[in-house]
Structures are given as structure tokens and as C-alpha cells.
Amino acid sequence: MLIRSLLATGLLCGLLASPVASALAAGDPVLVIGVPPETLDPYNTNTTLTTAVTKSFYEGLFEFDKDLKVRNVLAESYEVTPDGLTYTFKLREGVKFHDGTAFDANAVKANLERVLNPENRLARYNQFNRVKTVEVVSPFVVRITLKEPFGPFINSLAHASAAMISPAALQKWGKDIAFHPVGTGPFIFVEWKQTDSVKGARFADYWQAGLPKVDAITWKPVPENGTRAAMLQTGEADFAFPLPYEQAKSLGENKKLKVIAQDSIIERYVSMNMLQKPFDDLRVRQAINYAINKEALAKVAFSGYASPAKGIVPAGVLYAHPMNAWPYDPAKARQLLKEAGYANGFETTLWSAYTTSTAQKAIQFVQQQLAQVGIKVQTQALEPGQRVEWVQTAPDPKTARVRMYYAGWSSSTGEADWALRPLFATEAWPPKLNNTAYYSNPEVDALLAKALVSTKDEERAELYAKAQELIYKDAPWAPLVIEQNLYATSSRLSGVVVMPDGNIDSRQVAVAP
Questions:
Q1: First vs last Cα of the chain: how many Å apart?
Q2: Which of 214, 224, 354, 430 is deepest in the core (most CB within 10 A)?
Q3: HEC profile for 446-480?
Q4: What percent of the residues of the chain are helix, what percent strand, and what percent coil, each to the nearest 5?
Q5: Average pLDDT for residues 4-24, to the nearest whole number?
Q6: How far is Cα 379 from Cα 45, in angstroms, rounded to an integer?
Q7: SS3 184
């Protein structure tokens, strides 16, 4: 057996720390984010900031550190057979769920079997559907057998969606677990006032000594950029993400705040529904790519805290294959539209997956750019309920209402499979996953499938590179920019970090007395 141990230095240090609560344990820090969570069930969301909230209550077997490296949490070590099919996990002992029940191998089995049950229709089904069986070997040893080799399996288990929910709570609440999270995380769920706030209280029996360092935590969704910034300045918030890019300089001059800008793996794009005219014509999709000035977009909507996307998988993601950004050439765009039979342009709609001020600026900029080549676009920023109903759960691809769709994606597993398969595989059409372009290329499907079962790094890199080149050539998207993560904290706050994928690690959150 190939034996791997992923002992995490940070967690080990925490276990060796004094069991006495930190002197910083006080107060109720308020963390402001740009979008409201649509659920508190981590298995039923594809929204990064939603899982940032659920991480207050839940943990998984593994997690990512700030550099997207895997480290242990509820799993102490694992073994994998040479054929890559069977994984055996040694679990951490002495961990309790918030309801007082013990975390053990049966909990792992219950959670994986729940997401694997297609009748539950959970959003993360496709992330785990290569699991064949989950066996309890002993109270703290669990064996997982896959249907076929799955290179990114441990990365999938480190994703924030792969949380351990109390089996007793699952039995009690059923589907309503989405409103009653019960995990092993540092905070116990208190209340969720939808669109207003999610509150958690310190879990006194948390397994990691010295944590949490505060009495409570409050998450507040605030879509309007300026309001998030104002809440920082007035002291109503201790943390805000994302920040309005245009206010970065002025906020940085406030001595009571710390402003941080970091590279991300978040790509903003516009997908085009290839099942509908005129987007079934490659020339139209190419024209839209040529019509948008990405350099200008980065300045106008992101105040320079972004750069043109070079390909469809950002640098920093394992197996990313960089390519040249689409050049800005409106004359070429008009020529292609004329060749496609749209010399006078056409009318269409552009929806945004977000209602933030930055998103509003982005879609207005795209609207103006397309108008210059004769494409008249009506824009609409979707509320969370509209996004779910109109886009993510549209039942029939042929009648899906989405046409052009402004969104973003980060591969929260840190590798190219989750940057490509959920967005470009034929099997990923909504409502299964997020292929909102309804793109389908059998050659791409085959490359992604082959890469998924490969255990050789060089082979996977080559397969993913070929897939990315084909997708880029087919132009189901207009790749726009890779944005920077811009956030700020009050001077009294520490221990909150925005990850490269836009998730948030708040386990070490602390406030000065």
C-alpha cells in the first residue's frame, strides 16, 4: 500500500496549544460578504461564498491552506492502493458534533451515501459520483472504493462542500438540514435571517484546543460595494470581501483598516447559449470576443485590480494551459457578424449571476462594447432565487431562457478537472452542473474523461492542455478577466484570510480586547 500522511503543521500546533481559551475570546466580529448564501447545506451549492459561511459550522476530512495545498482535518492519514481504486482513512478520535454525538466512520459513510443518492438531487453529486462503496472498517477507519481511478479524489474531499454533517441531525431534519447546520466546526449555528445575517456561537467542545478565539461570529451579505466599504469605516463590520476596487486607495489611507490585494484563481466570463441562435454560429461567438476590450474592462469595472484572461483556466490552478487573450478588434467583430448574416447586428439579453456593484459595472461595460458592433443587449442582474430557477435548475436545455450570462468560476479543488468538467463537459449542462453555454464537443468530453482516470501527471497535463485549446477555439465563452481578491479588516481583527479561489478561512478569527 502507498501510505501518505498529510499532518498539517498549523493543526498540530493547535492541538499542542493550551486548552484554555485565548485571551482574545470576546466579542462578535461581523464579516461582510458580497452575496447571500442560498443554503447552509454545503453539498447543495456551487457558490464559493456560501461555503465560506458553512465552514463556520462544518469541517471535512481535509481542507486547503492559503496556497491551496491539502492538509488534514478530520482525517489523520490515508492509504491508497497502487491501482488508485481503494482509499483507507484513519480518522481523528475524540471529535464531537454540535449535538453531542461522536464523529466516526459511520458519519463519513452517512454523508457520502447521502450525496451519492441521486434521489437527493444535491448539487455536488457529480463531485463524488465515482465513489462505488463506503465501508466502515472500525469506528475510526473508513474504506472508500472508487468505480475507476480518480486523480483529484483527495482534492475533492478537501473541498469545502465535502463536510461532515451529524447523521443524527440528518435523520432529524432531512432536507431541512439546509436551515439547521450541525457539524464539528468551531461555531454552533444560532440563526439565519435570510438576506440579512447568519450567526454562530462558540462551540465549547471544539476539538482543536484554543479555538475558536471569539464568542460568536456573524456573516452579513451586503451586495452593494459602497455599503460594505462604509460599514468598515463606521465600525459596523470587521471584515469585508469583496471590496469596491475604486475605493481601495481611500480605504487604505484609513489607519483603522488593513487593505489586502492578492492574486486569485477567479475568472470572470460571459457564456453564450450555443443551443440558441445566433450563438450557435462560431463567427458570432468570435465576434463577441473581439468586440470586448478586456484591458479597458479591467480598468473600468475593477479599477486595475484585474488582468485580461489568458485562456479558460487561470494560472495557479494545476494543469492550467495559458493562451493569448482575445485581442480587441471591433472591425474584425463587425466583419464576422456580417459573414454570419448579422450585418445589422441583433438583439439579445445578458444576465449577471450577481447583483454586486462591480458586476453591474461589468455587464454595463459589455453592453456598451457590443453596442458599438451593432449588438443591442438588455442587461439584468439576477437575484439568488432567479439565478437558481432561471439558470442553475433550468429543466430543459432546449427551452432554457439564458442567452448571454456573466459569471465567474474558481476551481476550489485547485486543479483543472473542476475548472473544466463542470463548465464544458456535455454531462455538465444545467441542472446537473454549470455548463451554461450548453457546450458539447465529444473530443473534449473524451479528453476530460481520460484525464480524470489518469494517475500520471505528465499525461494529465497533456490531456488538459489539448482540451483547453479545443474549448478556446470553439469559443463558448468570452473570457474576460482574472480578478484580484481585494478585502479589508478592521485593525482589531486578525485570523481571517481570503483564499485564492475566493473562499474564506475564518477558523482563526480573533479580535483584540
A1: 50
A2: 214
A3: HHHHHHHHCCCHHHHHHHHHHHHHHHHHHCCEEEE
A4: 35, 25, 40
A5: 35
A6: 25
A7: coil
SS3 368: helix
**Residues whose CB falls within 8 Å of the CB of residue 457, separated by 6 or more in sequence, listed in order:** none
**C-alpha separations of 13 from 10, 18, 23, 439 in Å:** 5, 10, 18, 47
Cβ neighbors of 338 (< 8 A, separation 6 or more) are: none
**Ramachandran region of residue 270, left (φ > 0), alpha (ψ -120 to 50) or beta?**
beta
Q: What is the pLDDT of residues 183-232, one digit of tens each?
A: 999 999 999 998 899 999 999 999 999 999 999 999 999 988 889 999 99
Rounded to an integer, what distance in angstroms lies between the CA atom of residue 96 and that of residue 101?
6
236 three-class SS: coil
Distance, CA of 199 to CA of 443 (rounded, Å): 47
Helix H or strand E encompassing 380: strand 375-381
Is residue 509 within 8 A of residue 29, CB to CB? The reply is: yes
Say what the pTM is. 0.77
Before 430, cis peptide (omega within 30)?
no
Residue ranges in 318-414 assigned as alpha helix (H): 330-339, 357-371, 384-386
Per the document, the length of the chain is 513
Q: 77: which residues sit within 8 A by CB, 6+ positions away?
A: 3, 4, 5, 6, 7, 89, 90
Cβ–Cβ < 8 Å for 312, 267: yes
